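Submission sheet (multi-component)
Chains listed below:
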Amino acid sequence: MADNRTWKRPPFIKNPTLRWGIAIGGAIYLSIAMGTMDVNWSRVAAGLPRAERFIMSFFPPDFVSRAGDIADGIYESLWMTVVSTVIGIGLSIPVGLGAARNLSPRPVYLFSRGVLAISRTFPEIIIALFAVKIFSFGPFAGIIALSIGTIGFYGKLLAEDIEDMDPVQAEAVKATGSSWFQWLNYAVQPQVMPRMIGLAMYRFDINFRESAVVGIVGAGGIGATLLTSFDRYEFDSSAAILLIIIVIVMAVEYSSGFIRKWVQ
Amino acid sequence: MPDVTPDTKKVWQRRDRNHQIMIWLGQFIAVAIFMYCWHLVSEKTTWFFVLDAPRIATDMLERMMPPKWTYMETLWRPIWDTVAIATLGTLMAVVMAFPIAFLAARNTTPSTAFVRPIALFIIVASRSINSLLWALMLVTVLGPGVLAGVLAIGFRSIGFVAKLLYEAIEEINETQVEAVTATGASGPQILNYGIVPQILPAFAGISVFRWDINIRESAVLGLVGAGGIGLQLSASIDTVTWTQVSVILIVILATVIVSEWVSAKVRHSII
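Outcome: structure written.
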């Protein structure tokens, strides 16, 4: 008996009831979800030849005939990104400080966490939808939406970083008799700064990508240009815009890696 | 702050003069860029509307109250669709991202010169294009509906999952792989017994994390006609039934909080 025992890989989830429960439950859920998807297959079949034509009409990308509009849109997206990243991070610093448990009193903590939770829950595009209703069409609404999104993202990460900081250094600075702001400046800030600069770059990158969609609801940026090109069936121009977005995102990502290395 | 006593002794300074000037210059340029961008914003903004905004916002809030709870009855199906879009989309992305991640990771790719750049390009392209833009394109091809939403979420998530996964693959412990290789394992066996067990927890964590993000994203896909609760949202906004809008917002809030809780629980139990 002992001779033909073979080794079996230990399962990922050790409890067999749980393992099979998850597997069967997952299978049932998936089959129901698939069933209720309600796909109109004849529509899909009709769409397939169209898909081919559609995909072909993206090639070759046409950078030239709408060059002026595309340049304007990209430019608008870029400055929207700059302004909203700066404003968003500026506003997220007080909120983030308030949301750090080791820094602020209980009521402030709860309030700041509430602000973060709400601004993080709603996608930028929904906020943009309402910003457009409130501030009328244009890039200002987009900037408001992106800034609110930035507060939720950056404030939460800042708060978590402050909660994770080394308390020994903070105590040492406090022991010198520093004021609260000095303590913040010499004990807290140096500890969180390198990571926060990297995250600021990352958020810049996200804001640029988001600025490409808030235009769909009328909040300015390259998204408006893109939507127009779709609506006018100028898919070769759309392809050009998408390629430019990809290139800029790659450039930002590459340079943010560089800056992060330089900062640390 | 160090006491500055000019002529006599040297005082400790954090940076030398040139470094300090460089930093000042950098800050100056950053502020100048921001001011210039702000100038552009201000040019494109009608400040009258902005000043008027508080009034409009309070007006809107007043009209949203009280939420029309009876509208909930018609919302169960869109909620189900939203979750289904997120789940099926994530599943699709995970299945496709798994091989791409192996092709993109420096230590498992078959060729660094040829295959890896292609895999990296797929990852970047998928990540750069927002799911809403994917949905916009797919609705044109497949017609409005849940399928376009699933595919949009899937395409957007491939890049995300593959990127995090290939970073996890690059950070694996090589000694385990070596040990499996030393038993005379074939290539697929090395993959299966040497690498996959090491990245499985990260993989599960990433998938659940992405699922949680996708719930949020699939809630808005309806704005371009790709199914889910966004359809009801845009319809209610278009017909200015603000009392329904507030119900939908509360529902989205609740769904997101629940999914975040589930995802945090699962990730906590894995890691």
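Remark: The CA atoms of residues 122 and 263 of chain A lie 32 Å apart.
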